[in-house]
Amino acid sequence: FTEWIDAEGFFLVQEFDPVEGWTPGGKLELSPIQKRILEHCLTLRKDGRFPYTLIIYSCPKKSGKTTIGAAVTAWYAEEGMPGSNIYCLANDQEQAAGRVYTMLDYHNGISARASQRFKYETEYRNGTKVMAVPSEYRGQAGGNPALSVWDELWGYKTESARRLWAEMAIPPTVNNPLKFVVTYAGHLGESDLLWDLYNHIVKEGEAVPELADIKDENGEPVCWRNGRTFAYWDSVPRMSWQTDDYYTEQLAEGMRMVDFLRLHRNQWVASDDSFIDVSRWDDAVRRGQDVNLTEPIIFREDHPFRDFPISIGVDGGTHHDCAAVVGCYFDVKRGRVGLAFHRIWTPPKGGTLDLEATVQEFLLLLQKKVRLGNILYDPTQLHMMMTNLKNMGFRVVEFNQSSNTRMTAVSQNLYDLLDQGHFETYPARDMRDHLRFSVAKQTPSGFRITKEKHAKYKIDGTIALAMAAYDAINRGGVDLSNPIRIRNRFSDGLTGDPRGAVPERFIVGWDEKRKPIFKAPRGQEGLPEELWT
Fold first, then answer.
1. Can you point out the beta strands (E) in 46-111?
2. CA 366, CA 374: separation in Å to the nearest integer?
C-alpha cells in the first residue's frame, strides 16, 4: 500500500498546507506514523498473505480516517485480484456514498483508472467492482467480499447491523480478503459491535512489538493484535491541523465534554443518562473469575458461597412484562457482594407469563439448593403469588418501588458497589443487557434506576439486582430473620422470665471475623461484656 501511495498516489479533493491552510487538489501524503502502521498491516508476508484479515483504524475526529479508508479501497481495487467485489459500508446508503465512496469517486475522476462510474457503483478495467451499500444485511447475503470498508462502526447498534457484519464475513474462497474499519470510539452500552471488537483486540490482545514505540499521552502502546486481527487505537491528535485553537473553538461552541472526549480524544463514554458504565459490570465479571465464580452457585454443589444466606429481589409485571429473580450474597470478610444466581423470563410476543410456572417454581427449586434469606418484591405487581409463598414459609418482604426514597437508596447502593469495585459476578449477558439499558432519573432525594420512556428494552434484572444487593448489605451477610437465643446459666433472674426461667442473651450482629455481637442484659448496657451477669 505505501509503495502504491508513493508511486501512483491517491488524489485528494483538498489538502492542508501549514502556511496556506486548505488548498484544492494534490495527493495523499502519509505521516511517518501512518506510513509505519499501514506498511505493517498492508504488506504481504513471505507466504503471500496479509498479516491480518481485520484492521481497525481508530483515532480522533479529523485525523484523516475516512481518507485512509478511501485510499485503501482505491489501492485494493487497482492492485488486488481482478474481478473482486469491494463494499463501502456506512449507516445508510447515502452516507456510504457520501464519505469513503465520494473520495474514491473523486480520485477515479482524476486518475482515470476506472472504466465506469455510477452513483453507488464503480467498475474497473480489471473487472473489480466497488459498491456503496447501506447497513441492510438482507441485500448483502452471499456478497463474497474481497474487501469491505466500514465507516464509523460505532454507529452500528442494531441487530440488523450485527447480521450485516456476519454476512460480510471473510470468505475462504477469496485471495487475501480484508475487513478495514475506520472509526472513533462509541457509547458504552450502545456501540456493542465495536465494543466487542475493541475488547477482543485491545483488552485481550497484545501490543504489536514492531510498533510498540508508538504510544499515547499515558505512555501506552496504540497498536494491538489478537491473532489475525489488528487495531490502531489512538487518543492523540497527530495531524498538523488539529491545533489547540481548533479544540478551543469546539468547546466554545457548546460541545459537551462527554462528546469532546469521544470525538476528539477517541475515548469510550457512557450515554449522558446511563445508570452506570457497562464496563463496571465487565470489571465485576473479572473479579468473579478470581474467586472461581464462573456460573450460578446453584450449579456447583461444592462452591463455598452456597453457605451464605441469599437475599433475593423479584421484579416483573403481571401482563406483557418480563420477570426477573436475582439472588445476592454478602461476604463480610472480603467486603464483596456477589451475584449468586439469576433467572429472567420474557413472554412471547403478545402473550403473558405464567408467574406460578416460572417465578414461583424457580423459588421452590432454590429453597432446596441454597439458604434463602429475604425475598423483596413490589406488592403492586406480585402480591398474590408472594402471599402464596409466604403461606409456604418463605420470608417475603414488601418493597414499594413507587417510593423515591427507597428506590434512590437501592439505586445508589448498586451504583457504589459497581463503581467502587465491591461487586463480583459470573458472566451473564442478559443481566449485562438489562444493566446497560438502565438509565438514572434525578429526583429530589437523588437518582433512581429507571428506563427510557417508550424504550423497548427491559431492565427488570437491574431492579431485582438492586433490591437483592441492598438487602444483602443491610442484614450484614447473615440470616437475622429469627433471633438466635443463648441461655445464660448465671443470671440472677432480674431480667428473665417471671416464671423463674433463666434469661436469654440475643445476637444482634456479627463482627468482621464473623463472631456474634450480643445485646447486654437490661440495666447492664454500660458494663464490659465480661462483667455481664
1. 54-58, 85-89
2. 13
In the block, cell 447480521 appears at 163
Residue located via cell numbers 480478503: 177
CA–CA–CA angle 227, 231, 236 (5° rounding) = 150
The b/e string for 138-156 (b: 16+ C-beta within 10 A; e otherwise) is eebeebebbbbbbbbbbbb
223: β partners: 232
Distance CA 269, CA 186 (A): 7
Q: Confirm if 176 and 44 have CB atoms less than 8 A apart.
A: yes
Asked if residue 481 has pLDDT above 60, the reply is: no
Integer-rounded Cα radius of gyration of the chain: 31
Q: Which of 72, 271, 92 is nearest to 164 (CA)?
A: 92
Place of cell 502502546: 221
Residues 107/13, Cβ–Cβ less than 8 Å: no
Bigger pLDDT: 333 vs 507: 333
Q: What is the mean pLDDT of the chain?
A: 84
Written as one letter, the residue type at 476 is: G
Determine the Cα–Cα distance for residues 305 and 446; give it in Å rounded to an integer. Answer: 33
- CA–CA gap between residue 401 and residue 412 (Å, rounded): 14
**CA-CA-CA-CA torsion for 483, 489, 492, 496, nearest 10 degrees?**
30
Residue, of 340 and 513, whose pLDDT is higher: 340
Nearest 5 degrees, angle CA 309-CA 314-CA 319?
160
**Contact (CB, 8 A) for 250 and 242:** no
Check: CB of residue 344 under 8 Å from CB of residue 322. Answer: yes
Q: Which residue do the cell numbers 472480603 mark? A: 334
Cell of 101: 465512496
In the predicted structure, residue 500 carries a pLDDT above the cut 80: no
Distance linking the first and last C-alpha atoms of the chain? 89
Grid cell locating 499: 416464671
**Model confidence, pTM:** 0.56
Grid cell locating 182: 475506520
Q: Which of 93-102, 158-167, 356-365 has the highest mean pLDDT?
A: 356-365
Instruction: Report whether 87 contacts 143 (CB < 8 A).
Output: yes
